[in-house]
Write a structure and sequence with these properties.
Bound molecules: nicotinamide-adenine-dinucleotide
CATH architecture: 3-Layer(aba) Sandwich
Structural class: alpha/beta
CATH superfamily: NAD(P)-binding Rossmann-like Domain
Helix content: 40-55%
Radius of gyration: 18 Å
Number of helices: 8
Shape: globular
Strand order of the largest sheet: 3-2-1-4-5-6-7
């Protein structure tokens, strides 16, 4: 899909970070927009800013882990603009701790937002996009944690590995049906956003207490925070997404230097060696 002007994009997790940058890139290319996010106040501010810059944009408060709310988002987008050309299922959350300390609530939260947020969107939007025919593209945001296994991040890794394989399967399903809808999976390395503060979306009783982490996990959390702060700008990831849509590229890797880690992982698997530790 090479023409974007006048077409319609829906972006989840669009109030800030990578999602916001994708929405801004879509607007810069003349797309009409529906922004979705669980953070209603920030979503309103982002939507207002896009509108003041001339975009035809609407925001809807949505918890992507709730299937019914994502169905409502698809209904809303189609009634507002008639159809959707580009869907970006981007909302995601993270927290870090060893797997043996990861609670049922942690699993539910990360799988709910990161994996079901994507599958809810595919189920809600794709039947509509397929039945209307014409060109389209679906993007899901995974992570390098979908291709590698970071220490102390079992639930995040699992959710992002699941997103990668769901999108690979989707790519095949669309191709086997000669659909004119492409698929891409965004696997960024570190990006300068508030991902390390994801628990801002949780209730007080569910929060990870820094003091409860053992020294190894505490060191990893600190390293992740530093790496995110030194990460690329979200706009760089957003431009990579649109280049991938325009060129029909499936895998979108924003950090060339992290490819060595992926290669090492697959070499470890094929050589049946223990996994190489990923350097943060
Ligand atoms: N920042 C990084 O280094 C990095 C690296 C790899 C992948 N990612 C992925 O990029 C995506 C975007 O994250 P980001 O870095 O921009 O973080 P961010 O925290 O800045 O933005 C995430 C957005 O998702 C929203 N959100 C959270 N829970 C939601 C829910 N249940 N329903 C709807 N919206 C919800 C938040 O309100 C926020 O606006 C995520 O999927 C994340 O896992 C980020």
């Amino acid at each position: 899909m090479k023409d974007f002007a006048g077409r319609v994009a829906v972006v989840t997790g669009a109030a800030e970070g990578i999602g916001r940058a994708i929405a801004e890139e879509a607007a810069a290319r003349g797309m009409k927009l529906i922004l979705a996010d669980i953070d209603g106040a920030r979503l309103e501010a982002t939507t207002a800013e896009l509108r003041s810059n001339g975009a035809d944009a609407d925001g809807l408060r949505v918890d992507v882990s709730k299937a019914g709310e994502v169905d409502d988002l698809a209904d809303y987008a189609c009634s507002r603009f008639g159809r959707v050309h580009v869907l970006v299922a981007n909302a995601g959350v993270a927290c870090a701790k060893p797997v043996w300390e990861t609670t049922p609530g942690d699993w539910e939260w990360m799988m709910g937002v990161n994996l079901y947020g994507v599958t809810n969107a595919l189920r809600a939007f794709l039947p509509r996009m397929l039945s209307l025919g014409g060109e389209g593209h679906v993007v899901a945001t995974a992570s390098m944690a979908g291709l590698l296994s970071l220490p102390s991040m079992a639930a995040y890794n699992a959710s992002k590995h699941a997103v990668v394989t769901v999108m690979e399967g989707l790519h095949h399903d669309l191709a086997l049906r000669n659909a004119r809808i492409g698929a891409s999976v965004l696997c960024p390395g570190w990006v300068k956003t508030r991902i390390a503060l994801s628990e801002r979306h949780r209730n007080a009783g569910e929060l990870t207490r820094a003091g409860d982490l053992d020294p190894v996990a505490a060191k990893i959390v600190g390293a992740v925070q530093q790496a995110v702060a030194a990460g690329i700008e979200p706009a760089v990831a957003a431009r990579a997404v649109f280049a991938a849509i325009a060129h029909g590229r499936f895998y979108v890797l924003t950090h060339r230097d992290s490819k060595a880690g992926v290669r090492a992982r697959f070499d470890d698997i094929l050589e049946e060696r223990p996994p190489t530790l990923v350097r943060l």
